[in-house]
């Protein structure tokens, strides 16, 4: 998280057990604590996966580096409107975003990251599918 005092990387514990709403509430708590420099050491340790949104500061692409002892990191760029072809071959404006991933291949193989990336792509292109799978 970009803060007035520099970058901090807190993490949300047990995401798999939380609803999207609970994750959003926790993310807001972490952002507020980080901005006030009141983030706890507990909030900074034991992460397994980092998701970096460089799009919020205008970035479009990043080659992310894993923070040990985490096993993977993803980076999301800024959404851009670019010309693309529709299914009929006509040029149209499309929202495009770059994602990039890095993983520790001692823990996660490339195929697993590729499947994960494809699932993220499907959810972004068809948000109703993601909503249907919420807890």
TrEMBL record:
Record key words, sorted: Acyltransferase, Transferase
What is its cofactor? (R)-lipoate
Annotated signal peptide: none
User: Where would I find the 2-oxoacid dehydrogenase acyltransferase catalytic domain in this sequence?
Assistant: 1-131
Annotated Gene Ontology cellular components are:
mitochondrion
Q: Report the GO molecular function annotations.
A: acetyltransferase activity; lipoic acid binding
Residue runs in coiled coils:
none
Q: What is this protein called?
A: 2-oxoacid_dh domain-containing protein
Q: Does the keyword Acyltransferase apply?
A: yes
